[in-house]
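User: Please fill in residues for this 328-position structure.
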């Protein structure tokens, strides 16, 4: 294992300030005038966020060393690929709440900010567990193997269109309106303040993502045990996820083998964690998997998954993409 990463306080502060700055910039530039988000605009923003992640990887490699730079790249690729699976659920939730196309980008932005805050809490808990209990990697590894088995057989499982239990609990106890009021979160119904569907769908997306984080965060800890890198990986993957939603909308159904590929990656990381745990907690001479092998394996599985999916659906037509009125 590599030595513990010493992250100075100024770097944590700069990272958080930069993240908030990007969110504010997104709100000012993209959401100053709510509009349908077209594929051309989405492609430009996806390229921007991927380039931003690449620049951050170069900085990590320069400041902390190539090993940590490689850990960030491997973690980012894995987290981004796992996040694609979220998009299926996001589409179902958006459809069930009948979100107008012009408001979908803002829904995803706020929903993902909620998700990032919740994930930050999970990352702190995970890092503390790893610090205090040497057997945590055994638990993470076993959990990822179980999750891989579930994901492998989950192709026919329909996501809950009503969000999750928290959304239903709030809806049963807080006055809600069945109608949108622009981008407002609160409106008035018969003289009473009530939550709009805009507020409920943001809550649904933000908290539903937390369920995915229960799988992906242990997986990223399998790539790196550094809380700073785990948080950065999640931040970059989530911030680029919104534009990916609009870019791949209508094409997601063609990724028929996505679940199988993700299951293989999760199982691989689960085995990697267990081997690492045996190596560090016992005197057994077991092999460990270096980061470069993890990186090659993840890229290889994603490439094979994409190619076989395209081949399997080569005669089918993708669903209709969102309106391109928002292309600029």
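Assistant: Residues filled in for all 328 positions:
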């Amino acid at each position: 294992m590599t030595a513990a990463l010493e992250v100075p306080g100024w770097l944590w502060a700069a990272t958080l300030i930069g993240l908030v700055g990007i969110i504010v910039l997104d709100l000012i530039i993209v959401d100053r005038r709510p509009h349908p988000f077209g594929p051309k605009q989405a492609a430009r923003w996806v390229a921007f966020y991927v380039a931003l992640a690449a620049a951050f990887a170069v900085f990590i490699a320069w400041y902390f060393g190539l090993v940590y730079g490689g850990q960030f790249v491997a973690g980012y690729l894995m987290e981004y690929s796992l996040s694609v699976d979220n998009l299926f659920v996001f589409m179902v939730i958006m459809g069930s709440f009948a979100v107008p196309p012009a408001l979908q980008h803002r829904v995803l932005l706020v929903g993902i900010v909620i998700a990032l805050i919740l994930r930050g809490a999970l990352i702190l808990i995970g890092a503390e567990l790893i610090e205090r209990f040497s057997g945590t990697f055994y638990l993470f590894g076993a959990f990822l193997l179980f999750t891989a088995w579930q994901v492998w057989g989950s192709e026919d499982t329909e996501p809950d269109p009503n969000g999750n239990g928290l959304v239903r609990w709030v809806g049963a106890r807080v006055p809600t309106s069945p109608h949108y009021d622009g981008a407002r979160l609160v409106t008035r119904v018969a003289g009473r303040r009530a939550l709009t569907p805009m507020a409920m769908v943001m809550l649904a997306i933000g908290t539903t993502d937390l369920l995915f984080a229960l799988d992906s965060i242990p997986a990223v800890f399998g790539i790196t045990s550094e809380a700073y890198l785990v948080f950065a990986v999640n931040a970059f993957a989530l911030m680029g996820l919104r534009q990916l939603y609009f870019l791949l909308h209508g094409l997601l159904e063609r990724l028929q083998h996505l679940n199988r590929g993700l299951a293989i990656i999760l199982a691989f990381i689960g085995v990697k964690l267990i081997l690492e745990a045996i190596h560090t907690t016992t005197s057994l001479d077991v092999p460990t998997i270096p980061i470069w092998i993890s990186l090659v394996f993840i890229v290889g599985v994603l490439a094979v998954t994409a190619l076989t999916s395209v081949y399997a659906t080569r005669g089918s037509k993708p669903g209709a993409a969102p309106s391109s009125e928002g292309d600029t």
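For context: The longest helix spans residues 66-96.
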